[in-house]
Amino acid sequence: MKKHLFKLAIIALLAIIHMSFTTKTSNQEHTKKEVPAEYQNKENPYKNDASLKMIGLRNFNRHCVSCHGKKGKGDGVMAKNMKTLPGDLSAKYMEEYTDGELYYLSFVGIADRPDFMKLIPEEEAKWAVVNYVRALQDQ
Questions:
Q1: pTM to 2 decimals?
Q2: Given 35, 76, 114, 138, which is the most exposed site by the fewest CB atoms within 10 A?
Q3: From the Swiss-Prot or TrEMBL record, what is one GO molecular function term (predicted)?
């Protein structure tokens, strides 16, 4: 009996250790990401420019939906294949980020994804995506 309980305890311990290395972080848990000072107060030259709405939507649909999903919730079809779950761009915590920080996180500072600086080379289009992400927070 004791031998059986010992085996069960070992199996349970191994399962817990395995889960700690393989479980992905939930979108509900969020720690604000570090952003270099030069981006923290970077001005959005296209803030509130409604003429860029379609450019932001088109680029978001082309480059972001597969991981973040149509509504930015982090539930795109590729999300389950990623080491780090994509963030919920519509979440309240996204309001903590300045536009410059969103720019950095979207185009410069996150590994484990395509090089969006090259995929969306136009500055206007990058800021259009930032504006579109802001609009997701209002939905």
A1: 0.75
A2: 138
A3: heme binding
